[in-house]
Amino acid sequence: MIAEGPSANLPPHIWLEPVLLLSRSLKPAVLGLAALSALNLAGCDRQSGDGAQPAAQASGTTQAADAAPTKGADRSHKGAALPDFTFADPKGGKLALASLGSKPLLINLWATWCAPCIKELPTLDALAKAGKVRVLTVSQDSAEPAKVGQFLTDKGLAKLEPWLDPENQLAFHYMTGTLPTTVLYDSHGREVWRFVGENDWASAEASALIAEAK
């Protein structure tokens, strides 16, 4: 079955599921190439604007999109520790997750070619501006990650930081094949829930979810 309609209305982007299934058997170098290929393929018919590709040219991702997981908060990993990863921004700044303070943390995995990600970014920006939770947007772009900062600037998203994860460490850590994926941690660095798919993070429902972090 081929999904129809504008890319912004399609199910969340599934781009690493086949690679994750191979992660236990492939050598790291080979796995990295497989991940990059999956990302590039998923971007073919999921971009917004004139660069979008016909769905027929990306049948692999179309099949995956038809099997998109049910959207909602998943608490099956509640209590898991915040991973000890370090990320950079386009200007060379560094951020170690382990160094973050005693404030609830919302990590959002996104990409510039992901239409559902782009759609929810303004609500994440509003959430970051409110200041009740630290919002950490981590780009999964593998191609030209240096453009991520300019992308956020062009969209007027002043409160979102362009942290880069071109090797997709977080996607593999969370074993997610879908963008966007958002994970909430409490002030002690313990996972509260993870949310797969687009959401309105400025809604009352989202506020209730975020209030679960103490």
Automatic annotation (TrEMBL):
Cite the residue spans of the region called Disordered. 49-84
Q: Which PROSITE patterns does the record match to this protein?
A: THIOREDOXIN_2 (PS51352)
Q: Which residues form the Thioredoxin domain?
A: 62-214
CDD domains, per this entry? Answer: TlpA_like_family
A Gene Ontology MF term for this entry?
oxidoreductase activity
The highest taxon in the source lineage is Bacteria
Q: Write the protein's name.
A: TlpA family protein disulfide reductase
Q: Which organism is it from?
A: Novosphingobium flavum
